[in-house]
């Protein structure tokens, strides 16, 4: 509902998800938790409001229930302040609280996770610093195949979401339009996570393979990631708005950090078209 100026009000219920790599549908699960055979959540409920009544300012508040698994609440605040025609400041905050509910099919969950960032823009250049913190003996988790994580350091290969993990990221981006190449952008970043500690987790009640089993062995785990990317959007002609993005990512992890060590190159092309 957008009847009120500057407000978005929404709510809904979903009972199934369609996996990316197969036909049909399944019940909604989570990205990091493991349910025992026969256990499943029957539906996801959510409701929330978003407000953008002041120029440059956005804020939202949401509540959701993944039945018999968790209640999860989300708040964010983002503001862009233009000091002049060249320089801008963009501070922002994201906060999640996750608490087990009902039959607690993933065991005990009591998790507060937040991130904060500051972006300084100078013409076509921007530099961002972001800090993220997980307060809880479980990873910060979200619904599978839902991509519903908006934390600043969880936009890369790793979510930097281990139990009790702290992470910091710095990134740089440039828009080449000012230099005569509209549609071309570059970015580079590095992120580090440390202090991962799952030794206090007992939410699976000793049932092997259930909940977040395995994180009990994580004690002082750490990892880092860096990447570089380039994006080009076609500016005119029959392929206007088509984008091509290439990214290279390297991730290095200590022995028991869950994401492991990888090198990855991705090339993604998006071609919009009208069917009518």
Please, could you describe this protein's structure?
The chain has 276 residues and is an all-beta fold. 0% of the residues lie in helices and 51% in strands. The chain starts with 6 loop residues before the first strand and ends in a 6-residue tail after the last strand. The chain has strands at residues 7-14, 16-17, 26-27, 44-54, 57-66, 70-79, 81-82, 87-100, 110-122, 125-135, 166-175, 184-197, 219-233, 243-253, 262-270. It contains no helices and 15 strands. The model has no long low-confidence stretch (mean pLDDT 94). 24% of the residues are buried.
Summarize the structure.
By secondary structure, this protein is an all-beta fold. The chain has strands spanning 7-14, 16-17, 26-27, 44-54, 57-66, 70-79, 81-82, 87-100, 110-122, 125-135, 166-175, 184-197, 219-233, 243-253, 262-270.
Keywords for this entry:
two-stranded antiparallel ribbon, 15 strands, mainly beta, 276 residues
DSSP helix count? 0
Rg, rounded, reads: 21 Å
Find the structural class using helix and strand composition.
Answer: mainly beta
Poorly predicted ranges (pLDDT <50, ≥5 residues)? none
* Element-level helix/strand string: EEEEEEEEEEEEEEE
Helix content: under 10%
CA(first)-CA(last) distance: 27 Å
Average of the residue pLDDT scores: 94
Number of strands: 15
Major sheet summary line: 13 strands, antiparallel
Gross geometry: globular
Which percent range describes the beta-strand content? over 45%
């Amino acid at each position: 509902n957008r009847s009120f100026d500057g407000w978005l009000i929404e709510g809904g219920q979903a009972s199934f998800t369609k996996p990316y790599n197969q036909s049909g549908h399944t019940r909604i699960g989570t990205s990091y938790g493991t349910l025992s055979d026969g256990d499943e959540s029957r539906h996801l409920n959510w409701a929330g409001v978003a407000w953008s009544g002041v120029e440059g300012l956005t804020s939202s508040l949401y509540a959701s229930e993944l039945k018999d698994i968790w209640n999860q609440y989300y708040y964010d605040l983002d503001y862009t302040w233009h000091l002049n025609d060249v320089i801008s400041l963009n501070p922002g905050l994201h906060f999640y609280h996750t608490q087990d509910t009902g039959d607690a099919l993933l065991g005990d969950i009591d998790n507060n996770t937040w991130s904060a960032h500051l972006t300084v823009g100078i013409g076509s250049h921007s530099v961002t610093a972001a800090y993220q913190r997980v307060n809880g003996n479980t990873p910060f988790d979200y619904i599978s195949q839902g991509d519903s994580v908006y934390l600043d350091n969880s936009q890369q290969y790793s979510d930097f979401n281990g139990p009790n993990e702290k992470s910091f990221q710095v990134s740089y981006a440039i828009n080449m339009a000012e230099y005569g190449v509209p549609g071309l952008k570059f970015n580079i970043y590095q992120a580090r996570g440390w202090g991962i500690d799952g030794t206090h987790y007992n939410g699976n009640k000793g049932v092997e393979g259930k909940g977040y089993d395995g994180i009990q062995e994580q004690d002082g785990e750490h990892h880092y990631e860096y990447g570089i990317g380039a994006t080009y959007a076609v500016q005119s002609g029959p392929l206007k708005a088509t984008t091509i993005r290439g990214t290279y990512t390297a991730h290095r992890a200590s022995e028991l950090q869950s994401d492991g060590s990888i090198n990855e190159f991705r090339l993604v092309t998006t071609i919009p078209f009208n069917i009518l």
